[in-house]
Amino acid sequence: MNFLHMTENNFSLKKIEISVSEAEKRTGRNAMNMQETYTAYLIETRSVEHSDGQSVLTDSLWRRYSEFELLRNYLLVYYPHIVVPPLPEKRAEFVWHKLSADNMDPDFVERRRIGLENFLLRVASHPILCRDKIFYLFLTQEGNWKETVNETGFQLKADSRLKALNATFRVKNPDKRFIELKHYSDELQSVISHLLRVRARVADRLYGVYKVHGNYGRVFSEWSAIEKEMGDGLQSAGHHMDVYAASIDDILEDEEHYADQLKEYLFYAEALRAVCRKHELTQYDLETAAQDLAAKKQQCEELATGTVRTFSLKGMTTKLFGQETPEQREARIKMLEEQIKEGEQQLKSKNLEGREFVKNAWADIERFKEQKNHDLKEALISYAVMQISMCKKVGFGFSEGMSIFRSAGKFL
Amino acid sequence: MCGFADSSWKEISGPFTWTFGSCYLYTKRMGFLPALHRLLPCCSNTTDLILPNGGTPAGTASPASSSSLLNRLQLDDDMDGETRDLFVTVDDPKKHVCTMETYITYRITTKSTRVEFDLPEYSVRRRYQDFDWLRNKLEESQPTHLIPPLPEKFVVKGVVDRFSEEFVETRRKALDKFLKRITDHPVLSFNEHFNVFLTAKDLNAHKKQGMALLTRVGESVKHVAGGYKLRNRPLEFAAIGEYLDTFALKLGTIDRIAQRIIKEEIEYLVELREYGPVYSTWSALEAELAEPLEGVSACIGNCSTALEELTDDMTEDFLPVLREYILYSDSMKSVLKKRDQVQAEYEAKLEAVALRKEERPKVPADVEKCQDRMECFNADLKADMERWQNNKRQDFRQLLMGMADKNIQYYEKCLLAWESIIPLLQEKQEAK
Lengths: 412, 432
Known about the structure:
The complex is a heterodimer.
Chain A: E1 4-6, E2 14-29, E3 35-48, E4 55-64, H1 65-78, H2 106-124, H3 133-140, H4 145-151, H5 154-157, H6 161-170, H7 176-226, H8 231-246, H9 248-305, H10 313-321, H11 326-401, H12 403-408
Antiparallel strand pairs in A: 1-2, 2-3, 3-4
Helix pairs in contact in A: 6-9, 7-8, 7-9, 8-11, 9-11
Chain B: H1 20-30, H2 33-39, H3 66-77, E1 86-97, E2 102-112, E3 121-127, H4 128-141, H5 165-184, H6 192-199, H7 203-207, H8 216-220, H9 235-283, H10 290-355, H11 365-426
Antiparallel strand pairs in B: 1-2, 2-3
Helix pairs in contact in B: 1-11, 2-3, 2-11, 5-10, 9-10, 10-11
C-alpha cells in the first residue's frame, strides 16, 4: 500500500491507496469481432481519512493489460524526461522448465497482478507523474478512458523510431553524462538478462536435486519393513526425504519473487535508454537547427557582400541565366534575414528546451538512482534472508530425520 | 567353570584331532550355541593341513589346552579395549613403477600378544592381489563362515583413475575394513593364511607352495549355481535368504539413487559456478551497490565450495559402503547355498539308508559324519549371521547419520555465508 497526495481539478488533497486486488478471466470480442480470452484486473482506489486512518473505497474498475500499455505509452510521450516505471513482462520469459510460460497460467497471472499493482504504485509515488490527469482518469473513469487518451493525440506526438535512430547516429555533442548513462543502461540490461537466465538454470537443477532425493522415501520405507531394530530409524529417514523433496516448490516460488524484482530493473534499463534517446533527439535537433542557421547566415552574408563562397543553386542559375536584379537580391536578403531572425528565436528556445530537458531529466535520473540502489539492496537482503531461512529449515529437517538413529544408542 | 571336566567330553589328544562330532556334542551339552561356536573351530581345515616345516603352524585355530580355551572364552565376551590382543592397520599407500606394470602397495601393521605370532609387531607391504589371494584362501579354508568382501577388483579404465588420491584412499579404507573385520572374527582371525598374510616377508613364496589340501568339507563343497530341493530348510536360513534378497535389492536401488543425486548435484554446481560471478560483473557497473553485489558473489562462491565438499563426501564415504554390503550379501548367499548343499547331501544319504530296508537299520558312520558336518555348518553360519547383523546395524547407523551430518554441515556453511553478508547489505554508504 502506498500513500500519495493527489489533486484533481483543484479538489482538496486526499491520501489514497491503490491496489490491484483481483484478476479475472474474460471473454469478449476484439476489434475484428473475433472471440478472444483475456484477463481483466480489478483496480481499487481508497481514500484515507486523516483523522482516523480509515480507508473508504472511492473507485473500483476493471482494466486489461493493453490499457496499462496504453497508459504507459502516453506517459512516455508526455514525460520524455522522466524514467517511466516499466510494466511487468508481457510474456513469461526466463522460465525454468517447471514454470509455465503460458499467459493464462494462474501463477503467471498472479505474478502479473502484483507487477501491475507495483507499476501503479510507482507512478502514484512519482512527484510528477502522480499529477497527471490521464493517470487519474485511468484509476477513476471506467468507460471512455481509451477515447480520452487517444483524444490527446499523443500518438502523433510520439517520435518515430527512424528519427530517433537517425539522431543517435548523427548527434555530435550529446551531454557526456547521457553517453555514460546509455552505456550503463546497456550493460545493466545485459548483466541482468544473464543473471536471470543463469538463475533459471540454477532453479532447474536445484529442483532436480530435491526431487531425486524423494526417491529415497519409498525405498527406505520398503527397507524398513525387513528390518527389526533399524526399522523405525529407516522409516523416519524415509519420511524426512519425502518432506525434503516436497519443500522445493515453496523455495522456488519465493525465489521467483526475487526474479521479478530483478526483472523490473531489467525493464527500467529500457526506460533509462528512452530518456537518453530523447536527449539525443533534442540535441540533434538543436545541432541541426544551429547548422541550418549558420548556413543561412553565411548565405545572407554572401549575398550582401557579393562574394560567393558557398555553392548554391540560386547562385549557379544566376550565373548561368544572368544576374538577378538588385531588387530581387534585396528581396532575397530580406527573406533570409527574416528566416535568420526566426531561426535565432527557434535556436534560443531549442537551446532553452534542451537545457531544461537535461536539467529535468537529470533530476529524475538522480531520483531513480536512489530508488534503484534502495530497492536492489532490499531485494538482495530479502534474497539472503530467504536463503538463510531455507538452510535452517532443511538443516533442521535432516537433524529430525536422524533423531531416531541418534537416540537409539548402541544396538548391540 | 564351563564343565571341561565332564566325562562325556571326548578326549583331547592333540591339536589336530578335533573332529566334527566333538564340536556338535559339546555344543549340544553346553546349550549355548553362539558363544561356544566362537571357541571351537570345528569346521576349520587345520586338521588336514600339511605344512612344509612340519611343526605347529602359526595361527592354528585349534586351542590345545583347556586353559587357553578359557582365555578365548573371556576374550570373546568383551572384545573392546584392553582385552583385544590383535590390532591390524592398513595405511601408507605407495606407488611402484616397474617395467612390466605399475601398482600400489599398502603397509600392513600388526600388533599382537597372541602366541601364534612370533614377534609382537610386524610391518609388511601388500598389494590388492595379495588381499585377493587371502580372501580366496579364507573362502577355501573356512567355507562355513562368512568372509568379508573386498572392494571391487576391476575399474573401468579411463573412467576412474586408479592412481588418483581419492581412489587410492577409498580403496585403502575398504581394505582396512576388510582386515579389521577378519581381526574381529574369533575364528577367522586365527586362520593361518591370515597370519601368513600379516607376517610373511615374502608372500609370493608362500603362494607358490601349491594349494593346501582341501578338507573333507572343502572337497565336497562345489560351487553351486542353482538351489537344492531340501526336505526342510531350517526356517532361520530360509528367512535369512529372503532377507538378503530384499536387502541387496534395496541397497542396489539406494546406490542408483545416490549416484543420480551426485550427478544432479554436480550439474547444479556447474550452474552455481556461473551464477556467482555474474554478480561480480554487475558489481563492476555499480557504485553504491558494488560492495553488496560483490558480497553476494563471494557468498555464492562459498556455497559452491561447500556443495563440492558434500558431493565428494558422498562419493568417498557413502557409495563404497553400499557397494561393500551388496558384495557382502552376494557372498553370503553363496555360503547359504553351500550350506543347502551340505544339507542336501545329508538328506540324500539318509534317504539311501532308509531305502536299503535292513532288519536293523543302523545309521552308518559316514551318514553320522554328514549330519555333524551339516549341524556344524549351521552353527557357524548362524553365529556369523548374528555377528553380521550387529555389524550391519552399526555400520548403517553410522553411515546414515554420517551422511545426514555431512548434509547438515553443508547447510550450516551456506547459512553462515549468507548471514555474514547481511550486515554488508544493510550498511548505509557514507556520502560519496
